[in-house]
Every structure is written in structure tokens, then in C-alpha cells.
Design brief:
The protein is built from four helices and no strands. With about 130 residues, it is mostly helical. Part of a complex composed of FtsB, FtsL and FtsQ.
């Protein structure tokens, strides 16, 4: 009979061991799922990383545009410091300034017609309708 008792105790220990092993496997599975979820949702996830990469690309493009604008401004500044030709050109184009003894002609195109057309007095509709 003593052998029977030893066998009985070993069976109960085996049952208790498999039960704790089931709990351990369940806890490990839950932790694995939580880790996988954290990769796809929340701070530091793949979508957040991809969004930050897109923002970095947009900022780099914006920086490149600003660098080009800075280059243009530096070139204009150097032209302005080197002589009067750049200042005169800017005054003419932006401020409409003209030199002495110069005549300024401005051509205004009608939006309805593509080319300017002079109206002769004989073609004037107001005079021909009254006659």
C-alpha cells in the first residue's frame, strides 16, 4: 500500500503542474498579443512611424523650397549691392517708374476680344445709328 500512496501523490503533483503550466501559457499568450497590438496601435506603432516619416519628407521639401528662395534673395541682394541696374529694373517693373523724356504706353486688352482693335469714327455705332 505504501507504493500506492506515492503514486497517488505523484499524480496530484502532475495535475497541479499541468494546471500551472496552462496558466503560464495563457499569460504568455496574452502578453504576446499585447505586444503585437502595441506594434500597430498607439504611440510608437508602425502607423505612427509612417506618419512621422511622411511629415519629415514634407518638411524636407519645404526646407528645399526655402533654400531656393534664400538663394534668389541672396542673388537679388548681391545685384542690388553691385550696381544701379538691378535697382532701376526693379523700380521699372514693380513701381512703374520711367526716365526723363521717356513715354510710357500701357496696352489694355479687352477680355472679350483677344487682340486690340481700333474703332474708326466711321464704324462708331452711336454715330451710324443716329444718321
Amino acid at each position: 500500500m505504501p507504493a500506492m500512496r506515492v503514486l497517488q501523490h505523484s499524480v496530484t503533483w502532475a495535475n497541479e503542474g499541468s494546471l500551472s503550466m496552462k496558466y503560464l501559457i495563457t499569460i504568455m499568450a496574452v502578453l504576446l498579443i499585447l505586444l503585437l497590438v502595441s506594434l500597430w496601435v498607439g504611440h510608437g506603432s508602425y502607423p505612427a512611424k509612417w506618419q512621422l516619416e511622411d511629415e519629415i519628407k514634407a518638411m524636407q521639401q519645404q526646407n528645399e523650397q526655402q533654400r531656393e528662395l534664400n538663394r534668389q534673395i541672396r542673388a537679388e541682394l548681391e545685384d542690388a549691392q553691385s550696381g544701379n541696374a538691378a535697382v532701376e529694373e526693379r523700380a521699372r517693373s514693380e513701381l512703374g517708374m520711367i526716365r526723363n523724356r521717356e513715354t510710357f504706353y500701357e496696352v489694355i486688352l479687352d477680355k472679350k476680344e483677344e487682340s486690340p482693335r481700333a474703332v474708326l469714327p466711321s464704324e462708331n455705332p452711336s454715330t451710324s445709328a443716329t444718321e
